[in-house]
C-alpha cells in the first residue's frame, strides 16, 4: 500500500462486509485518504489533524474536488478525546504507521511505514466491555 494511493486501502477494505461504515483518519495530513473514503462511499468521512497548515490544505483539496460539504476535517488531538464514546457504532477507524496500543484491529495492511490498522468500533466496544467485565469480577477461588 502506497502513501500516495489511499484508494488501494479502501479497495482492500471493500472486500469485507463493511457497508455503510464511516471513516475517521487520525493524523489526516493533506486529507487524501478522507477524501478517497468519501468517494468510495464511506460516510461520515472525518479527518483529524493537529497541523493547521495541513488542515487548510486538506480543506482546500476537498473544496477543489467538490466534496467540501461532505467531508470534515477537525483540528483536535484525539489522544485527549474518547474516540470510543464519540464515534458512531458503525464507524471504521484507520490508523497509519502507529497502531492504537489498547485496541484490537480487525484488519492490518501493508508493511513498515506503509502499515495501516483498521478498527471496527462495534467490535472495539464489545472488546472494551469484555475487558471491563473481567477487571470488575473478583478472582474466583
From TrEMBL:
S-adenosyl-L-methionine is among the record's keywords: yes
Coiled-coil ranges (or none): none
Biological-process GO terms, alphabetical: methylation; regulation of mitochondrial ATP synthesis coupled proton transport
Gene3D superfamilies: Vaccinia Virus protein VP39
Molecular function GO terms recorded: protein-lysine N-methyltransferase activity
GO cellular component, one term: mitochondrion
InterPro entries reported in the protein's UniProt record: FAM173A/B, SAM-dependent_MTases_sf
Key words, A-Z: Methyltransferase, S-adenosyl-L-methionine, Transferase
Keyword Transit peptide applies: no
UniProt family annotation: Belongs to the ANT/ATPSC lysine N-methyltransferase family.
Name of protein: Uncharacterized protein
